[in-house]
Design brief:
Helix 6 packs parallel to helix 8. This protein has a seven-stranded parallel β-sheet with strand order 3-2-1-4-5-6-11, sandwiched between helices. Strands 7-10 form a two-stranded parallel sheet. It has a two-stranded parallel ribbon with strand order 8-13. By secondary structure, the chain is of the alpha/beta class. It is built from ten helices and 13 strands. Bound molecules: uridine-5'-diphosphate. Uridine-5'-diphosphate binds next to helix 6 and strand 8.
Length: 328
């Protein structure tokens, strides 16, 4: 299939572009390069530098014969969204609305959307299922939920079929060590720990030690970026083969505490870096673990790279090979 990948030069997008090529599809990447890295794209993949809100996108969709859209482009930092919500409403909500409108006008039938576990907020029951209460506790999660709701209406009324994929903690890197995570500023746990291992930062601070978990630190469900990539392809093929609009969680189904991620990273890297025990970070739920049974049953998806040592080992290879990321 010919698939437009918005945000295809970003972290999860670039891994999915590689997976699409391997699976015999033709990705066309659309990215405004506000956060993405054109260096992450494989040779021969068509790249269009354009914003998702650009109304001329409708012509691109028509002229290129695009069949489906995978929509990754978004601002995705929870902390930033609470300080500067305007850019989240503009880029995520308004930008996605314009993209979805272009898709409707161009007669696109299939749409796969990057959503997030943040749409659930503080869960009452774990593992979290798709029918759990939707009660985001931050602006980022709210913008993603609004886009899901928009897609629901476009699906019902205009027949644009979609899959929304609610990721838990995306982590790891392609095992080639050629592409990986490079955010400015970096806020995610595993890359920050690896920067401590590389000596790029003096220590890693663990946010909170008084949660109601086994060792008092937060528990999260880490899912390998290449397992997310395969879920996107299965979702697009599911829609192409007649699947109805749907929502799926993507996680490994296992929870790991921040302390255990630090300990495993020390074991994988064989480096003993400094750890600081700090205060809780505002808005962090204690435990988030996915039930991904629905994706496994309906899509036939199976996470195969998400054993935590592999997640950290693959991320470590990328960070060792590229201590300054893509070099910007
Ligand atoms: N965390 C931490 N120190 C850091 C960054 C993150 O202890 O420097 C914790 C954070 O409180 C959360 C977990 O690591 O419990 C994962 O955080 P991350 O920002 O990677 O992802 P999130 O769960 O917010 O999507």
């Amino acid at each position: 299939m010919k698939i437009l990948v918005t945000g295809g030069a970003g972290y999860i997008g670039s891994h999915t572009v590689r997976a699409l090529c391997k699976a015999g599809h033709t990705p066309i990447v659309l990215d405004n390069l506000s956060c993405g890295h054109v260096e992450s794209l494989p040779d021969g993949v068509e790249f269009i530098e354009m914003d998702i809100a650009d109304p001329s996108l409708v012509n691109v969709l028509k002229d290129k014969g695009i069949e489906g859209i995978m929509h990754f482009a978004a601002h995705s930092q929870v902390g930033e969204s609470m300080v500067n919500p305007a850019i989240y409403y503009e880029n995520n909500v308004v930008g996605s609305y314009r993209l979805i409108e272009s898709a409707r006008k161009a007669g696109i039938k299939y749409f796969v959307f990057s959503s997030t576990a943040a749409v659930y907020g503080e869960p009452k029951v774990v593992p979290i299922k798709e029918d759990s209460e939707l009660n985001p506790t931050n602006v980022y999660g709210r913008t993603k939920l609004m886009i899901e709701q928009m897609l629901q209406d476009y699906s019902k009324i205009y027949g644009l079929r979609y899959v929304a994929l609610r990721y838990f903690n995306a982590a790891g890197a392609d095992s080639s060590g050629e592409i990986g995570e490079d955010h400015t500023p970096e806020t995610h746990l595993i890359p920050l720990i690896l920067e401590a291992a590389l000596g790029k930062r003096e220590a890693i601070t663990i946010f909170g030690t008084d949660y109601d978990t086994e060792d008092g630190t937060c528990v999260r469900d880490y899912i390998h970026v290449n397992d997310l990539a395969s879920a996107h392809i299965l979702s697009m093929e599911y829609l192409r083969d007649g699947g109805e609009s749907n929502v799926f969680n993507l996680g490994s189904g296992s929870g790991f505490s921040v302390q255990s991620i630090v300990d495993t990273t020390k074991a994988v890297t064989e480096i003993d870096f400094n750890v600081i025990y700090g205060e809780r970070r505002a808005g962090d739920p204690g435990t988030l673990i996915a039930s991904s049974e629905k994706a496994q049953t309906v899509l036939g998806w199976k996470p195969v790279h998400s054993e935590v040592k592999q997640v950290i080992g693959d991320a470590w290879r990328w960070h060792q090979n590229h201590p300054n990321g893509y070099g910007k």
